[in-house]
Amino acid sequence: MSPTDVQAFPRLAARAFDLLLPPSCVLCSCTVEAGMAPVCAPCWHRLPRILPPRCHRCGATRLTPAENNGCAACAAWPLESMRAEAVCPMKGNAARLVRELKYAGWTALAVPMGRALSDPAQNLLRRAGVPADEVLLAPVPITPARRRERGFNQARLLADGLSHVLDARVTELLERRIARRSQAHLPRRDRLANAPGSFRTSVRAGGGEHRRSVLLVDDVVTTGATAAACAATLTEAGWQPIGLVSFARAWRTFEPSGDSSPHM
Description:
The chain has helices spanning about 5-20, 40-45, 90-100, 110-115, 120-130, 145-150, 155-165, 190-195, 225-235, and strands spanning about 60, 85-90, 135-140, 170, 175, 200, 215-220, 240-250, 255.
């Protein structure tokens, strides 16, 4: 059996299983209509949402009403123009959806999750003064080894879902270098130090796309170190990164002074 066949086998098995048993919601196990996303409408509508007050720059939850300045979460971001928006806090069923997509192979979840990025994405576009048909959607890449292991990049799947709503083109502008250390379990300070130099691009802006605006897409933003590193790489290649849109954001509250509450 070839490597391609091995990667395809779980997806083929899942399709065969669906023919035998009705599909169910990944969150509550109730039956959902065949051909629909594997999450029921009640569970979707009960997902936690990010409420104000929030940082105007990175979208982090604040303890007090936010001014126009940033907070401890985005103080180290090198680009003043960089912004971030997310749909849900990374907790409860929102965190479960991310894990089911990312680690359990429920790629069908990327359709509703990607479409849900529409509102925060359009907020970023309005703030940057960029029409949707003039922006490129650039998924944050994962390492080649991780992509072979999973068979997909979850950020690319989310970007595809978002593109159908915005009518914007998805372009994989970035590549991830061999990871020095995984970001997943690093503390905040180590994430910030580990991310620079982790990305590269062989696609330079030029000709009709000179300084073309780029919106980064990812599943989760934690410290923003990965987004900042991606934005710096794109800027060096002549692109104009305007922000990052993600499905979830690490659940933490920040103050301008640099104080923050622990993860909840």
